[in-house]
């Protein structure tokens, strides 16, 4: 009986030792001969990073899958990975740091500004000043330098915009305070009374830009009023991009341009190639997706001749939208992906300046570039459309219209 009891005790002790060694061991206690060397680097925010990018070298089998880690939130992060040593599985906390080393940008800021004595204050200096950051939705704007708004003179100041990581951008400016003079009323001369003609005719547009590799067109909205598309077509215009919808502000949904349906029908009947664009003031991905759904609903399955265009131009009041520059790309990507799922290609409309300085990554975007000049836009990637003036004149439309050049692939 005693031998049997002793045997049972020995078996229990062995079982306990096995359980302790195989089940209840400290999984976070790294064995002496294990080596996991972490890469000595910081991750730039938005720089896509996988788990294995953090590991420079190891002599064990890493069991955790090589998945994306959080590279979109600045600060220190901890990621727990699992590895195998001999027959046991262990856990190891990996620490990494996501940083933002990109400085904010000024979108609109004056280098010179004039006010009259006692007609302005400190708040006046920041009006119409807009700025943005790749990460922060509310970078800090401050002004260094003093302006005496009650004293005539020129004052040097600096506009400084800084993000939460301490990156800053400085812009010098001169503020001039003048004494308001009594305006003298002068009678206009006979020559001054005549309105100056400042427009480009469709004949000039065709002569300057029509080749075997281009098409000449226009883009219109309700502001062009009633359009005679037969006359437009007969002048040599080959296509038209129609405004389908417009957001009045970020808190209202897209509404149909009240001339769209008539213009769409009449332009097609006239034999013009047709595209559409929407003017968006979205400040969230959800709103950008709603924009895309609006287009899908109103196209009703029709095929069009150009990619659907996303026109976003809220630069003057960018700071009121509480978004960052990265969000812009995310919004366009969401808009584009929704439309591509419905069978429509997309393109992004913006001026040369904003394409180069505010859109962080044009990726593989199809571009419609605006530059009112005889010189072509200079941007980092090809564009299929160039809006070269807003002072075009064509028979069939009263007043000015935008002219566009399409470059065939």
Distance between the termini: 95 Å
Biggest sheet record: 8 strands, mixed, barrel
- Low-confidence parts lasting 5 or more residues at pLDDT below 50? none
Shape category: flat
Helical element count?
Answer: 8
**Beta content:** 25-35%
H-E string? HEEEEEEEEEEEEHEHEHEEHEHEHEHEEE
Rg, nearest Å: 32 Å
Question: How is the largest sheet built, in terms of strand order?
Answer: 14-15-17-18-19-20-21-22
Average predicted confidence as pLDDT:
92
DSSP strand count: 22
Task: Quickly give the structural class.
Answer: alpha/beta
Oligomer: single chain
What percent of residues adopt helix (DSSP H or I)? 10-25%
Q: Can you describe this structure?
A:
The chain has 409 residues and is an alpha/beta fold. Helix content is 21%, strand content 32%. The protein has helices at residues 2-22, 190-193, 202-209, 229-234, 260-269, 285-299, 325-341, 352-357; strands at 36-38, 43-44, 55-58, 61-62, 75-85, 88-99, 105-108, 112-116, 130-132, 140-144, 153-162, 168-178, 200-201, 214-220, 239-246, 255-256, 273-280, 308-312, 346-351, 367-370, 385-393, 401-407. A hairpin with a 2-residue loop joins strand 5 (75-85) and strand 6.
Topology:
Elements: H1 2-22, E1 36-38, E2 43-44, E3 55-58, E4 61-62, E5 75-85, E6 88-99, E7 105-108, E8 112-116, E9 130-132, E10 140-144, E11 153-162, E12 168-178, H2 190-193, E13 200-201, H3 202-209, E14 214-220, H4 229-234, E15 239-246, E16 255-256, H5 260-269, E17 273-280, H6 285-299, E18 308-312, H7 325-341, E19 346-351, H8 352-357, E20 367-370, E21 385-393, E22 401-407
Parallel strand pairs: 2-6, 8-12, 13-21, 14-15, 15-17, 17-18, 18-19, 19-20, 20-21
Antiparallel strand pairs: 1-3, 4-5, 5-6, 7-9, 10-11, 11-12, 14-22, 15-16, 21-22
Helix pairs in contact: 6-7
């Amino acid at each position: 009986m005693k031998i049997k009891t002793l045997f049972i005790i020995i078996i229990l002790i062995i079982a306990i030792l096995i359980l302790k060694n195989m089940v209840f061991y400290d999984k976070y206690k790294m064995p002496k001969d294990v080596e996991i060397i972490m890469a000595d680097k910081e991750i730039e925010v938005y720089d896509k990073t996988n788990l294995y990018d953090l590991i420079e070298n190891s002599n064990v089998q890493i069991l955790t899958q090589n998945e994306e880690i959080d590279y979109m939130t600045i600060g220190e992060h901890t990621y727990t990975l699992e590895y195998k040593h001999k027959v046991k599985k262990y856990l190891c906390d990996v620490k990494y740091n996501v940083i933002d080393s990109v400085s904010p940008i000024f979108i609109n800021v004056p280098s010179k500004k004039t006010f009259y004595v006692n007609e302005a204050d400190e708040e006046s200096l920041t009006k119409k000043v807009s700025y943005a950051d790749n990460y922060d939705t509310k970078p800090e704007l401050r002004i260094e330098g003093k302006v005496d708004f009650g004293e005539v003179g020129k004052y040097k100041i600096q506009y400084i915009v800084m993000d939460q990581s301490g990156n800053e951008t400085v812009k010098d400016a001169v503020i001039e305070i003048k004494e308001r003079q009594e305006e003298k009323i002068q009678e206009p001369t006979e020559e001054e009374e005549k309105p100056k003609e400042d427009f480009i005719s469709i004949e000039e547009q065709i002569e300057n830009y029509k080749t075997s590799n281009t098409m000449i067109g226009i883009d219109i909205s309700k502001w062009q009023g009633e359009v005679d598309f037969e006359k437009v077509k007969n002048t040599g215009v080959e296509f038209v991009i129609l405004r389908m919808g417009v957001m009045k502000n970020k808190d209202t949904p897209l509404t149909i341009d009240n001339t769209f349906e008539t213009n769409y029908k009449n332009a097609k009947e006239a034999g013009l190639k047709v595209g559409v664009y929407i003017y968006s003031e979205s400040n969230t991905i959800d709103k950008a997706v709603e924009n895309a759904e609006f287009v899908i609903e109103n196209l009703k399955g029709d095929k069009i001749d150009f990619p659907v265009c996303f026109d976003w131009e809220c630069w003057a009041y960018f700071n009121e939208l509480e978004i960052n520059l990265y969000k812009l790309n995310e919004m366009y990507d969401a808009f584009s992906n929704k439309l591509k799922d419905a069978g429509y290609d997309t393109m992004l409309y913006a001026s040369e300046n904003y394409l180069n300085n505010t859109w962080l990554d044009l990726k593989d975007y199809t571009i419609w570039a605006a530059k009112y000049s005889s010189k072509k836009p200079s941007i980092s990637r090809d564009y299929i459309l160039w809006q070269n003036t807003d002072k075009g004149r064509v028979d069939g439309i009263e007043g000015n219209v935008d002219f566009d050049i399409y470059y065939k692939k």
